[in-house]
Write a structure and sequence with these properties.
Blueprint: E1 8-16, H1 22-38, E2 42-45, H2 52-61, E3 63-66, E4 78-80, H3 88-96, E5 100-102, H4 106-120, E6 124-128, H5 134-140, E7 148-151, H6 154-159, E8 168-172, H7 178-191, H8 205-217, E9 223-227, H9 233-244, E10 250-253, E11 269-274, H10 280-291, E12 294-302
Parallel strand pairs: 1-11, 1-12, 2-3, 2-4, 4-5, 6-7, 6-8, 9-10, 9-11
Helix pairs in contact: 4-5, 8-9
Length: 330
C-alpha cells in the first residue's frame, strides 16, 4: 500500500472585522424584503453591491438587474444600489410614477448631503475618488455640472482648476485607502489652506476597520487573500494596503475555485479577509479548500468590534406598494 502523505501545516490568520458592512447588509435586505412583500420580479438598477455571488443569489430569488431605468417596466418595484445614484435617477422614477426603494448606504447619503450643503453655501466641492465608480457618479450627480471637481491622485491636485481658491470644500469616496487619501488631502490643504473639511470623516468605518485589520495581519503572513469582486473599490484597496503593509504576495479572488494554490508559493501562514460586499460563506469556502490541501489551524485576529445597524426604508413596513412612489429612510 502507498503511504498517505501527511498534509503540510498551514496557519490561517483570519481578519476581523471582515466582509459585510451595515450598508451592504441593509441593501441586500431591501431587495430580499421587497421580493417577499411584492413578489418577483423586483428590478434593481446596477448591481446592488459589487459581488457576483450576491447578485446571482438575488437573481435566483427573482431580482432583475438592469443598467438603466429605461429597462424597468411600469408597475414593478425598483431598487437603487448601495452606491448611490445621481439626482436625475429618482427624478425620472418619479416622472414615470415608479415605486422605488433607495438602498444607498446612509454613509454615502451623508456625503451627498454635505456636498449639497457646501454648494448651498457657495463653495465648489473637490471630490477625492475614482472616476467612473458608481459612488463617485452618484455623488457628482447631486450637484449641477461643474460644481464638483474630481481628483484621483496627488498629481491631480496640482493640475486642477477651481473657481475660487478661497471658497472650496472637499469630500471623499467612502471606500478609499485611508493612507493614500491622507496624501491627497495633505496636497489639497497645502495648495488650498482654507479648504473646508467634512464635519465627520467620509471614509466609512467599515473601510477603515478592514484596512486596519489587514495592516496587523500582513506582516505576519507569507501570502494574503482578499475575497471580493474585481470592481469592488474597498476590496481592491485591501490588496493594496496588504502589499504596502508587508505582504507582497497579496491577491484578490472572488471564489475558492479562483485560487491558484501553486501560484501562492510556499506558504505556512496565510492571511484571509473579505471586502465589505463579500459574504462570509465565501470565506468559509476558502478555508474548506485550504483544509483539503493543508493541516489547517485558524486564528482570528480581531482589531475592532462593529455593531452598526441601519434601518430599512419605512416603505417596506408601512404598507406602501408599487402603485405609489417611496424613498428610503436614510
Amino acid at each position: 500500500m502507498t503511504a498517505v502523505q501527511p498534509k503540510s501545516p498551514l496557519t490561517i490568520l483570519l481578519a476581523a472585522p471582515r466582509g459585510f458592512c451595515a450598508g451592504v447588509d441593509r441593501a441586500i435586505q431591501i431587495v430580499e424584503v421587497a421580493l417577499e412583500r411584492f413578489g418577483a420580479p423586483v428590478y434593481v438598477r446596477h448591481e446592488i453591491v459589487h459581488n457576483r455571488f450576491v447578485v446571482q443569489s438575488l437573481e435566483a430569488k427573482g431580482a432583475v438587474f438592469v443598467d438603466e431605468l429605461t429597462e424597468v417596466p411600469d408597475g414593478v418595484p425598483v431598487v437603487f444600489s448601495a452606491h448611490g445614484v445621481p439626482k436625475s435617477v429618482p427624478a425620472e422614477a418619479e416622472r414615470r410614477g415608479l415605486f422605488y426603494l433607495d438602498a444607498t448606504c446612509p454613509l454615502v447619503s451623508k456625503v451627498h448631503r454635505e456636498a449639497e450643503r457646501h454648494h448651498f453655501d457657495g463653495r465648489q466641492v473637490i471630490l477625492i475618488g475614482h472616476a467612473g465608480h458608481p459612488e463617485v457618479v452618484g455623488t457628482m450627480g447631486q450637484l449641477p455640472e461643474g460644481a464638483v471637481v474630481l481628483v484621483e491622485t496627488v498629481e491631480d491636485v496640482a493640475r486642477i482648476q477651481v473657481q475660487d481658491p478661497d471658497n472650496l470644500a472637499f469630500a471623499t469616496q467612502t471606500t478609499l485607502s485611508v493612507d493614500e487619501t491622507a496624501g491627497i488631502l495633505a496636497a489639497l490643504q497645502a495648495r488650498f489652506p482654507s479648504i473646508s473639511a467634512p464635519r465627520k470623516e467620509d471614509i466609512c468605518y467599515a473601510t477603515t476597520n478592514r484596512q486596519a485589520a489587514v495592516k496587523v495581519i500582513a506582516p505576519q503572513v507569507d501570502a494574503l487573500l482578499v475575497l471580493g469582486a474585481p470592481n469592488s473599490s474597498n476590496s481592491k484597496r485591501l490588496v493594496e494596503v496588504a502589499r504596502g503593509a508587508g505582504c507582497p504576495r497579496s491577491q484578490l479572488v472572488q471564489r475558492a475555485a479562483d485560487i491558484d494554490w501553486g501560484d501562492l508559493g510556499p506558504v505556512r501562514r496565510l492571511g484571509i479577509t473579505a471586502g465589505a460586499s463579500a459574504p462570509e460563506v465565501l470565506v468559509e469556502e476558502v478555508i474548506e479548500a485550504a483544509r483539503m490541501r493543508f493541516d489547517v489551524t485558524v486564528e482570528q485576529v480581531r482589531t475592532a468590534t462593529e455593531d452598526v445597524v441601519f434601518k430599512l426604508p419605512k416603505a417596506l413596513t408601512d404598507g406602501e406598494g408599487p402603485s405609489r412612489t417611496a424613498t428610503a429612510d436614510a
